[in-house]
Write a structure and sequence with these properties.
By secondary structure, this protein is α+β, with helices and mostly antiparallel strands. The strands form 8 sheets. Strands 1, 2, 11, 12, 13, 14 and 25 form a 7-stranded mixed β-sheet that branches. It is globular, with a radius of gyration of 23 Å.
Length: 624
Amino acid sequence: MLDNFTAATGSHSLISPFEIDKWGQEIFVTTEDRDFGPPPYILKWQPFPVHIYDYIVIGGGSSGSVVASRLSENSSVRVLVLEAGEEETGFSATPIFWGLHAKTKRDFGYMTTKLPNAALGLNGQSIPVTQGKCIGGGSCINGMIYMHGNPEDYDRWASQGGLGWSWPDIFPYMVKSEGLRDDPKADRGYHGTKGPMTVIRMKKQFEFEDLYLQGVKEAGYKEGDYNGADQARFDYIQLTIRDGSRCSAARAYLSESRPNLDILLDALVTKILIDDSKRAYGVQFTRFGVQGMIFATREIIVAAGAYNTPKLLMLSGIGPASHLHQHGIPVVVDSPGVGQNYQDHAFSIVPYTISSKVGYAQTLELEAFSQILEYTTNKTGFMSSTGTTIQGYLRTKYAKDSRPDIQIHQTISTPKAFSFNLKDSVTNEYISRHVGEDILTLLAILVRPQSKGRIELQSANPLDPPRIDPNVFSHPDDMKTMVEAVMAIRKIMNTTIIQEKLGAVPFENTLPGCSSFAEDSYEFVECLIRTLTYLEFHCCCTAKMGSSDDPMAVVDHELRVKGVENLRIVDASVWPEVVTGNTMAAAIAVGERAADVIKGEVLEKCLPPFQNEDHMLSSYKKIS
C-alpha cells in the first residue's frame, strides 16, 4: 500500500494524493480489503441464525443498527439483523477515504434515470447514487457530517400527520444518540455528550481554512454552531469520528455483543412473507445464491433505506396496484404512496484555484509517507480528516419559511471527485487544465427542494436495481435558489481577504455547453448547475408517515405499515420531508425513538437549551 500511495503522489496526480478520482479509485479500491487493517471494533455476527425470532430487522444501516441494538437491550427478546452487505474494513473506517466507496462492494451502485434538465455533463445524463451496502449502511461510507437539521423540519413532520415527531419530541433522541466530545465552541444545552455516536469538531488542517472563514464573515454571514441556537451559520464541521476512525452506526450500536442479538451478513431480503389475514410473519432472503426463510413472532422492521425499502415493499405486494400489476406481482395492499415523494439534496460545484503559498497540494505530496505513518501509528494527521472542513447554511430570498434553503461546503476535492461518471469533454476541457494546482471547491447545495421524484420497480426480479427518478429541478424555484447559492459563494470568494490572502480565481469559462455565456450572467450560472449536477445521497421520504385520511401515507405515526399487521418501517423512507442538512443524525434519532415506540414508552418532550442531560434521558412516559 505504501508503494501504491507513493506512486499516487507522482506527476500524474490530478490534484493531490488524496484525490477522489478515477485513478485514485483504481489504486485504493484494489487494496482496500488488505490495507489499514480491520475496522476499529469487533462485530460478532452469526453465520448460522436460528429460524424464529421476536423481531427481524431488515438492514443494518443508520436506523436499523439503532433499533436492533435498543430492542435487544431487553434480554427476553431475540432480535435478528439481516444485512445485504459485509463488515466495515480499516479502509472504510479511514476518514480521508470516505469518497472512494462509490461503485465498490460497499455500495449498491445505483444510477438515476436519464435526467432531461440536469446532469448534462455526466455520461447518459445519469447521476450515480450511492447507497450503503455494509453493516452501518450509509454511515459506513458517507462523509461523516453530523447535522441535527432544523427544528421546523420536525414540526413540519408533525403537522403532516407525524404525531409525536415534532422538534420537542425528537430533540431528546438527538441528545440520547449524540456523544459530542469536548468542543468549547458548541452551543451548550443543544448537544448530547454521553450518546454512542461520537461527534467531534473538525480541526484546522491548512492556513487557507481560517482565511476562508474570515471571508465568510467579511461577506456578512454568521459564524457559529449550526447545530446550536441558529442554523444559519458557518463553522468547522462536526463529524462522527472516534479516535481518528469513522464512528459508524454499527460501531456505535452493534459492537457490544449480546447473546440475544444475531447479525447475518450478505443476506439480501427479497420478500416479506404476509399471510391471508395480512399479517407479516417472516422474510425470504438469498445468501450466496441460496434462498432461505426466517420467521418473526412479533414484528418485521424494514430499515433498508429510501431506495430499497419501497422496492422490497413492492416486491412483497405493497404498493401502487397498477404498478404491481404491470410487473405481475399480486397486490396485498394497494398503497399508492410507496415509492412516491422521493426527495434528495441536489448540488453543484464552483471550483477556484488558490495561491500555492497557502495551498496544500505540494505539502501533501511532500508529506505523503509521513502522513501514512502518522495515521497508521497514531490515527492522527490529515488522514483522520475528510478534506471538507467548513460548512454553513443561508436563507435566500426564495425561502418558503424561516429555514435556510441552501448549504455551502468547502472542500479540497476537485469537480471530478464527486462523480466517476463525468463526460471526457468536461474532464479534458474544464478540469485537466488545472492539474497540479491548489483547488478550493465550493458546493452549492439545495437543502429545501420543491421537486419530488419517485422510486419504481424495473422488474419483479429482486436482484434488479430499482428505477430511480429524482426529477431534479422540475420545480422552477429550485433553479432560482441554486443560482442564489452560487452567487453567495461568489460573494464570499470575492471578499478582500479571500482575494488578497488566497488569490482565489474561478476556473476559466471553458465548461462545454456553457462557454458562450458571460461568466457573470444568470445564464452561465444556470448552465453550470445543469451541467455539473449531483445528489448528496440524502435520499428519503419514499414511504412517508401520515394521518389515516392521507391516501399517500404508507405508515402511521408509529411507523406501522397501513394495511399490514406486525410490519413497521424505521428509516428515512418514513419522513414526510427531507431535513435541512445532512441526514445521518436524523436517521439515527428516528431509530432511537422508534425503538422506544415499539417498547411502549418514549422520552418526555424537551426543547433546547436543556439544563440536565441525565434528567432528560431518564424522563419517560407511557404511550397513550
